[in-house]
Amino acid sequence: MEVYKNQKKQFYVDNYSIAHLFSFHVEMEVHEYGRDEWIIQEGMRPHYLFYVLEGKAKIYVTHQNGKVSLINFINEDEYIGEMELLNDVYYTKGIQATTKTICFAIPYHRYRNQLLDDNKFLRELTKFLSLKATFMAAKYSQSLAFPLENRLADFILQTADEGLYKEKHVTVCDYLGVSYRHLLHVLTQFSEKQFLQKEGRNYRIIQPQSLHELAGALRNG
Description:
Layout: E1 2-3, H1 6-15, E2 29-33, E3 38-40, E4 48-54, E5 57-62, E6 68-74, E7 79-80, H2 82-86, E8 94-97, E9 101-107, H3 108-116, H4 119-145, H5 148-159, E10 164-165, H6 169-176, H7 180-192, E11 196-199, E12 202-205, H8 208-220
Antiparallel strand pairs: 1-2, 2-9, 3-8, 4-7, 4-9, 5-6, 5-8, 10-12, 11-12
Protein name: Transcriptional regulator YeiL
Domain Cyclic nucleotide-binding: 12-132
Pfam families: cNMP_binding
């Protein structure tokens, strides 16, 4: 993790300002996380409220039987750590960067009480949480309504880094609720149609537009 300083920090403060979300001045840090770096370790309360400026991240949880599941994604203009801000007792999920990820970081120890008393911020946070809940409900309904081809195309586009898809098959099967055999069958189809090209254990996206068309059915459905 890198904490930006001086001009590097000022560039994001000037060009990605989120001052409109608050009714008071907030002095924010700017953090950069590399691919696969943990932004928050599971079970450990974060010290910051994050707001994602660039990049993507994944949310993981470990079940009582030791199985680790991918449960959701975090994209640009979304918060990380909002549940810990709102709840004194909350089991923190693991947040891992999928690509290089740059965030504003607001220290809890300095601003927590002010944030919780700021009606303007809380209204914006409520909107974010309601959209998040709606998305999770839609994701469940999509698993019943759409074939794997559409859902996998969307998943590949969400997780690829610079056109390279690297996710483990077992993680994908668990997240999408499909069998290993079914997943391999659709990946083979994508390769035969030249949407993807296999590179070792990974896949290079060759026809992103074709994947976007498949994924678009989820958003329009």
